[in-house]
Amino acid sequence: MSDMTLGAREVPLGGLRGLTVHRTLPQRGFPTVGAWCFVDHFGPTTDQMTLLPHPHIGLQTVTWPLAGEIRHRDSLGSELVLRPGELNLMTSGDGVSHSEFSVGDPDAPMHGLQLWVALPAGARRGPAEFEHHPDLPTATGDGWSATVLLGEVAGAVSPATTHTPIVGAEVRVRPGFVRLPLRDDFEHAVLAVDGPVTVDGEDIAHREMRYLAVGRSEVGLQVQQDTTLLLIGGEPFDEELVMWWNFVGRSHEDIAEARADWEAGAARFGHVLGHGSEVVPAPPLPDVRLTPRRRSVT
């Protein structure tokens, strides 16, 4: 697998009138970086997040706001307002549901990242869990600093629960050229969150992602002004994934069963307090059998 640049596509979150996000993962022929299987970047925008209760299986949701506040409610009974610099991590296991709504000043900008991590076979049928981490460790180097969301960077270890060898960090880079340490047994990707960046000599536009193959112990980054980046990575994830709507399974049957259970109000997804019977309905399944997403790019 060689290094490559991945572009972003615009997707309405929560329907045609929902918040527009820029999605860099998954892409056709490129489903994962480590166990990371979904990367959405939203804002800056004054549009509001209005996501009614919706289900998940087989994944962890990672929510990291850079500006604005989000009220999280879930079927485990969790309810809190997530603010910039704080991490929400929800592990779906075999089923969970949640809602996310912007709160606070409606004219204040929203900006942030929402990501999924695929759960490995040993954890994907486990119980649902929710974690809120208001204080995360930071690492610093010459010209850069990083807030560690998951995993470890330069000796700083996040308390967030992980199920595969993985890393995720918000990296702030000062003008000039810097070297960021990496694990050479991980593959990585760098997302240009708020401006362009040069990654090992390759110019990456705002919102693009640069994939970095296994085998490097550092990456060179160059920016013209203070810039925020997202670093993700992990051991290559070798389990085949069937991804559809909000579900990560291993087969068409996994997905079809989860969809039917959600539409039937099955107990596996619980109930999110504060919303009554209002939920996001599942879209119809396609007329073809769902198959695993596999890497087909080299």
UniProtKB/TrEMBL annotation:
Domain Pirin C-terminal as annotated: residue spans: 178-265
Cofactor: Fe cation
Residue ranges constituting the Pirin N-terminal domain according to the UniProt record: 21-117
Family annotation (Gene3D superfamilies): Jelly Rolls
Keywords recorded for this protein, A-Z: Iron, Metal-binding
Gene Ontology MF annotations: metal ion binding
Taxonomy, superkingdom: Bacteria
Cofactor note as given: Binds 1 Fe cation per subunit.
Ligand binding (Fe cation): H54, H56, H98, E100
Family to which this protein belongs: Belongs to the pirin family.
Protein name, entry field: Pirin family protein
